[in-house]
Design the sequence.
């Protein structure tokens, strides 16, 4: 869809960003020392820190990715909500207090507090860097998605804008302003999403989500003879390359024509593609309306985008993809329900039939195998509400309903990674050093859990509300939440988008802080033994922050087509595989040695990274190769690589026990900070 | 680790060993409780997905009730933990 920026949107947006920047300047004047820059002097109040946890954690992925996934495929996005929150239980009950007791600045400090090992510092520092970078990708992708409809800029401008603003925030004030940015954003996000949820319930469910100002095109599903009997309408043959490769019973592949019918209206010359949609109860063949997006080049070789065969544009007569998202039938044949209670909302949706959308990609090549055009046909998939509200409706988790065990293992693997990942995320862990003691660490975690949990409950309403709002963009699942706000009014759209944008700012600044701390404190000062005074450390931290910001911008542009929630899933996998075994064993097993910790982090990080890069999902979305050829059986490595980390740690620790613990005993007095 | 370059490190008030150990025990018990709930949800999804679509409370299916339940359970357990830990810490002092 093509978006046009609006003055309100720009004004609201500018107000948000300027407030955040102003605050950053004001607070920045106060943080001068390394302790101040990297850990906010350890003086943040526990309540502020708790909400800042929410601001840090409720990233673009939680807000944009989960809502988008629920809006396009139902319950499955909510699985992420459940997993993300469950991870906080691990953080609260197992990690928070001992972790606070052990360290000072970074994750590596804590791991290394019993030993004094350069190996651990290098391993923990690098894993913090890798995880933060992986986590940065989806945030930047989300930023780009947001800026497009809001200000009308292309994707890369959004990425650059976020990158520069955040780097600026981090460089001016470090952890103090980062914390306050996250606090503000966390509060705003939860507050406005609550309002949005109330509005969804107040509106209820309708079969035609349009309003007088914003009419909705209800997509047709009609009997074939009705479609074809329109005067002046002729049927055209399908293009030769519209074929599906199908394996027949004998196991040989053959090409079959795709299930579409193309009609052309004489006079208006409107060309439509219809998808064969089974039969109705009177045994008539049905055709359903589709939307077709074609990317090709004009005679001069310039990129050209066609919608339903005509050049895409916003002028009168030029077509654009239409917004989607409607209910085909409500229980009892109602047209609209009126206000609903939360339970009624789910119960009604369960009895309804909702139109979801599938897509079919077709590539046209010339005789030399060179690509001429790519066509995407978006077609209606009427789906029973009862199927939507249980796991397994999306392509990611479809395997849950089948018999293939690899798909089930993939699901368990992701849920395990989310469970173990939260408490292993460096940017979450450093937040424990901004409060003064263990009791504050504990209290702020509980505040965090309360606000994050409440928000995740809202995601289910927001996602399902967006699914039926009639404003979804078929080409961008990540925009569902702001577009849902647009279905109420444009001002709310501007506010929600600006909050989502500050969401990205908050999370990205936390991540850059974590990466910068890891680089300067762990790798430069402690591993490479570069002598730096306090002032130099802060300056190095700022330089690293700028570098990380630039890398993040580049990655954000490279990965722009992936669902941000999925990308975050990967970051959790790496964090859980590399850091979780080391953290848990160090806290709960006295036999842990420094070699064990180093090996576990290294092996966990490399194994999960390699697995991800060799997975079907990476083949399909990153390299554009055939996913069937992927080298690993499922996409989420956690279920293999987390136990692997534990195993490596135990084996190496046992093998090196004598030297390791003896050294630890000797150096213990000198290492506790 | 002593870090001479950071002179303004605040003195961190540690809770004493016994309190920490008690907190850790309470935390572990609650953690195992939650783990069982979470594991149950995963198990149902993998081994018996049909059950998830059955209406459970007020016409809302089990998948939604259990999912929201897990979030509420996390809040409840966190509250219980705070209560137990703070109570014990005071008794100990």
Sequence:
């Amino acid at each position: 869809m093509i978006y046009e920026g609006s003055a309100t949107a720009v004004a609201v947006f500018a107000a948000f960003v300027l407030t955040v920047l102003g605050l950053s300047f004001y607070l920045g004047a106060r943080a001068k020392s390394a302790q101040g820059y990297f850990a906010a002097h350890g003086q943040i109040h526990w309540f502020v820190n708790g909400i800042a946890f929410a601001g840090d954690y409720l990233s673009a992925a939680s807000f944009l990715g989960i809502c988008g996934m629920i809006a396009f495929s139902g319950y499955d996005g909510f699985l992420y909500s459940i997993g993300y929150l469950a991870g906080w239980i691990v953080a609260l009950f197992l990690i928070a207090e001992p972790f606070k007791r052990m360290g000072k600045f970074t994750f590596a400090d804590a791991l290394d507090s019993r030993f004094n090992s350069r190996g651990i510092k290098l391993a923990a520092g690098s894993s913090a860097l890798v995880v933060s970078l992986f986590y940065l990708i989806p945030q930047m992708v989300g930023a780009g998605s947001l800026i497009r409809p809001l200000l009308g800029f292309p994707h890369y401008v959004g990425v650059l804008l976020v990158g520069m603003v955040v780097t600026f925030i981090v460089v001016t004030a470090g952890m103090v302003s980062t914390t306050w940015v996250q606090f503000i954003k966390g509060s705003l996000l939860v507050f406005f999403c609550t309002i949005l949820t109330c509005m969804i319930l107040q509106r209820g469910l309708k079969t035609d989500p349009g309003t007088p100002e914003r009419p909705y095109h209800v997509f047709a599903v009609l009997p074939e003879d009705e479609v074809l009997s329109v005067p002046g309408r002729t049927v055209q043959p399908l293009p030769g390359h519209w074929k599906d490769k199908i394996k027949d019973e004998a196991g040989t592949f053959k090409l079959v024509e795709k299930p579409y019918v193309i009609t052309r209206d004489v006079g208006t010359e409107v060309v439509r593609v219809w998808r064969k949609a089974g039969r109705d109860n009177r045994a008539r063949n049905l055709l359903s309306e589709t939307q077709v997006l074609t990317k090709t080049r004009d005679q001069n070789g310039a990129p050209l985008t066609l919608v339903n065969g005509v050049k895409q544009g916003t002028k009168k007569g030029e077509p654009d993809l239409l917004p989607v998202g409607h209910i085909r039938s409500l229980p009892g044949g109602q047209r609209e329900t009126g206000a609903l209670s939360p339970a009624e909302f789910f119960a009604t949706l369960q009895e309804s039939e909702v139109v979801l959308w599938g897509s079919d990609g077709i590539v046209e090549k010339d005789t030399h195998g060179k690509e001429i055009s790519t066509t995407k046909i978006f077609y209606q998939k009427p789906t029973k509400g009862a199927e939507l509200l249980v796991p397994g409706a999306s392509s990611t988790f479809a395997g849950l309903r089948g018999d293939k065990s690899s798909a089930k293992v993939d699901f368990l693997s992701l849920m395990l990674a989310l469970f173990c990942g939260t408490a292993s995320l460096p940017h979450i862990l450093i937040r424990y050093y901004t409060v003064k003691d263990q009791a504050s660490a504990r209290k702020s975690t509980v505040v965090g859990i309360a606000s994050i949990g409440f928000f995740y409950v809202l995601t289910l309403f927001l996602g399902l509300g967006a699914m039926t709002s009639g404003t979804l963009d078929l080409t961008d699942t990540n925009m569902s939440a702001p577009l849902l706000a647009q279905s109420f009014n444009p001002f709310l759209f501007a506010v929600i988008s600006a909050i989502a944008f500050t969401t990205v700012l908050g999370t990205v600044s936390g991540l850059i802080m974590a990466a910068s701390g890891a680089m300067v404190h762990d790798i430069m000062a402690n591993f490479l033994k570069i002598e730096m005074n306090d002032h130099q450390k802060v300056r190095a931290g700022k330089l690293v922050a700028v570098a990380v910001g630039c890398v993040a911008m580049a990655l954000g542009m490279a990965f722009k087509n992936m669902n941000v929630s999925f990308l975050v899933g990967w970051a959790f996998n790496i964090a859980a595989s590399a850091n979780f075994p080391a953290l848990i064993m160090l806290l709960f097993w006295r036999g842990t040695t420094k070699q064990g910790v180093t090996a576990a982090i290294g092996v966990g990080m490399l194994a999960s990274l390699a697995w991800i890069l060799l997975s079907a999902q990476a083949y399909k979305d990153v390299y554009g190769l055939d996913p069937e050829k992927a080298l690993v059986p499922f996409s989420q490595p956690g279920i293999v690589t987390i136990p692997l980390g534990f195993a490596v740690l135990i084996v190496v620790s046992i093998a090196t026990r004598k030297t390791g613990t003896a050294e630890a005993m000797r150096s213990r007095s000198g290492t506790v900070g | 680790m002593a870090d001479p370059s950071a002179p303004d490190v605040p003195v961190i008030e540690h809770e004493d060993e016994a309190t920490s150990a008690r907190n850790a025990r309470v935390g572990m018990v609650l953690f195992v409780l939650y783990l069982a709930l979470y594991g149950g949800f995963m198990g149902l999804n993998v081994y018996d997905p049909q059950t998830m679509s059955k209406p459970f409370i007020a016409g809302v299916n089990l998948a939604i009730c259990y999912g929201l339940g897990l979030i509420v359970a996390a809040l409840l357990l966190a509250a219980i933990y705070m209560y137990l830990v703070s109570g014990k810490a005071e008794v100990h002092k």
About this structure: The longest helix of chain B spans residues 17-47. Chain B has one domain: 17-92.
